[in-house]
């Protein structure tokens, strides 16, 4: 049976007459990597604060690791590690000393702290830099030290808020891989709040789409895409030259084409009710245009997010 580590039931937070989180119900399993997605002000941070017992819900309940975060915030804090987008360290202390300091705050014996901190520094790839001052660390190194700092108290849940901001692509790749390994090897439950859709898609088992304090949809990327694009399950990307308006109109007139999104002047993304690749090829060639490529694509979080929240004006929709 699935064991739920995070249980939110009709969780609501009202500030004055503004409802920041509205009747939110959500269950997250042990070892799951869950992505929180949504535009600014959607209520993600408020939800995280309530989970960690840092702000009280107006109504509803929040349980983390079996404890009510409102009534037992200390028990929850012992089991949850929070990594913000920029961790504050003692800049004059080395990476190792910073971890030992956190271990002492968590009442760990010196011997145990040294053992654990050394192992964690190795795990996050900072073994060689462990004696250097934290103030000299690069952004990626700081976030890895932050992760080690969060892990020192052996949390069951880690909450990451935009953890890869400002890290170079290779650093991001390593960081995300580390998160996945931790979740897999140590059954740590991970909550990742981020606007980086590719990163979320890459590592999250499930995602929740927040808007206006509500959870609009929750599921795996493929479940969300099935729900959202059930009537136009085929996505075809064309690269055409010259890509005239006349061709664009002809394509839009095909009954199987529901919408066309321009990726750029010559790359068009068609949402279709059937796989009409041969018909498209024929139409393009007979219109005297060059077809450089035709690719059948999967809907990803980009399309899902775009469909829910953003830039609807850039879509060309057919009038029913
Ligand atoms: N202490 C507060 N008092 C009043 N309103 C608040 C308070 N904290 C948050 N809000 C409001 O609640 C809404 C949700 O904010 P929240 O920070 O949870 O959103 P978010 O999804 O985390 O956004 P972001 O992606 O920008 O971090 C916002 O409209 C915000 O202005």
From TrEMBL:
Membrane-spanning segments: none
One GO MF term attached to the UniProt entry: ATP binding
Protein name stated in the entry: ABC-2 type transport system ATP-binding protein
Keywords attached to this entry: ATP-binding, Nucleotide-binding, Transport
Occurrences of domain ABC transporter (ranges): 6-237
InterPro entries with a match to the protein in the record: AAA+_ATPase, ABC_transporter-like_ATP-bd, P-loop_NTPase
Homology family: Belongs to the ABC transporter superfamily.
Record carries keyword Transport: yes
Annotated signal sequence range: none
PANTHER family reported in the protein's UniProt record: ABC TRANSPORTER, ATP-BINDING PROTEIN
Domain of life: Bacteria
């Amino acid at each position: 049976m699935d064991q739920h580590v995070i249980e939110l039931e009709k969780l609501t937070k009202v500030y004055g007459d503004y409802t920041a989180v509205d009747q939110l119900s959500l269950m997250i399993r042990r070892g799951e990597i869950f992505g929180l997605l949504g535009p600014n002000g959607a209520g993600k941070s408020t939800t995280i604060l309530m989970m960690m017992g840092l702000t009280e819900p107006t109504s509803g309940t929040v349980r983390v690791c079996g404890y009510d975060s409102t009534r037992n915030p200390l028990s929850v804090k012992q089991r949850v590690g929070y990594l913000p987008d920029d961790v504050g360290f003692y800049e004059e202390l080395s990476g190792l000393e910073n971890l030992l300091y956190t271990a002492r705050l968590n009442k760990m014996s010196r011997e145990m702290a040294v053992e654990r901190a050394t192992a964690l520094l190795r795990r996050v790839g900072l073994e060689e830099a462990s004696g250097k001052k934290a103030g000299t660390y690069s952004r990626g190194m700081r976030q890895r030290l932050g992760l080690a700092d969060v892990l020192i108290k052996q949390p069951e849940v880690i909450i990451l808020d935009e953890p890869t901001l400002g890290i170079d692509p290779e650093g991001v790749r390593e960081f995300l891989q580390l998160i996945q390994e931790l979740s897999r090897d140590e059954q740590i439950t991970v909550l990742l709040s981020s606007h980086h859709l590719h990163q979320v898609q890459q590592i999250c088992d499930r995602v929740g789409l927040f808007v206006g304090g509500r959870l609009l949809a929750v599921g795996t990327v493929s479940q969300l895409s099935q729900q959202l694009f059930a009537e136009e399950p085929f996505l075809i990307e064309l690269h055409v030259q010259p890509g005239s308006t006349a061709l664009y109109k002809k394509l839009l007139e095909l009954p199987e084409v529901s919408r066309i999104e321009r990726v750029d002047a010559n790359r068009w993304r068609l949402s279709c009710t059937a796989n009409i690749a041969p018909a498209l090829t024929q139409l393009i060639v007979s219109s005297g245009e060059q077809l450089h490529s035709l690719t059948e694509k999967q809907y990803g979080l980009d399309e899902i997010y775009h469909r829910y929240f953003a830039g609807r004006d850039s879509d060309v929709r057919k009038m029913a």
